[in-house]
Structure formats: structure tokens, C-alpha cells
Design a protein that fits this description.
Layout (H helix, E strand, L loop, with lengths): L15 E3 L2 E3 L6 E3 H11 L1 E2 L5 E2 L5 E3 L3 E2 L6 E2 L4 E2 L3 E2 L6 E7 L3 E6 L3 E3 L1
Antiparallel strand pairs: 1-2, 2-3, 4-5, 6-9, 6-13, 7-8, 10-11, 11-12
Length: about 110
């Protein structure tokens, strides 16, 4: 017996297959294999060199970045440890904490995987 995927919306494990669609009886969500593949592709976040990033990675800043609302600058070569990938505003898809500056969000196009 094959293992059916959990519901992507409510994480229920009571899903069933109806033709080519999967259905969740708890929340009523329906999805297909193509929907799951598209969602996995959309979540993939890459650095400036095309390397896939994951939560917990360490990255290096490749460009001087001005901190909005402050006179601080994140310098080239700054290492940022333990990043978290998020769906942020304006393309800011990395949530992190930088020593000496604090919590902030970065765009993945300005970092490279360390």
C-alpha cells in the first residue's frame, strides 16, 4: 500500500485519492501531484550564484547593504549564521540576526552560501 501525502493546508494524514486528485476530508482542500511539484519549486530560494538555500545555512554578504532608517551598513564579507527562509515583503526572503546590527531581512540575491 502506497503512502498518501499529508494535506498541505492542515497537515491532516486522513487524505484520500479521487482520480488524479488528493482530497482532505478535514478541511476540504484538493490538490494534485502537479500542484505539489509547483509548490516545492516555488519554495526553492537560491543565492546569487544559484545555490539552493535552506533554513540554518550560513551565508556571506556579497555587496555593501545600507540598513534602511539607520546610518549602519552591512559590509561585504559579513557572515550571517543560522538563516531562516521566509516569504517576506519586497523580495526579502531571508530572516536573520547580524552581530552588531540585530534582526533584519535580506534579499537572497545579495548573499552567497558559505
Amino acid at each position: 500500500m502506497s503512502e498518501l501525502p499529508h494535506c498541505p493546508k492542515c497537515e491532516s494524514h486522513y487524505t484520500y485519492q479521487d482520480g488524479e486528485m488528493y482530497v482532505c476530508p478535514e478541511c476540504g482542500h484538493e490538490w494534485s501531484e502537479a500542484d505539489m511539484a509547483a509548490a516545492a519549486e516555488a519554495v526553492l530560494i537560491k543565492d546569487a550564484h544559484g545555490n539552493a538555500l535552506q533554513d540554518g545555512d550560513t551565508v556571506t554578504v556579497i555587496k555593501d547593504l545600507k540598513v534602511k532608517g539607520s546610518s549602519l551598513v552591512v559590509k561585504v564579507g559579513t557572515k550571517v549564521k543560522n538563516i531562516r527562509l521566509v516569504d517576506g515583503d519586497g523580495g526579502h526572503d531571508i530572516d536573520c540576526r547580524i552581530d552588531g546590527i540585530g534582526a533584519m531581512q535580506l534579499k537572497s540575491e545579495f548573499v552567497k552560501k558559505a
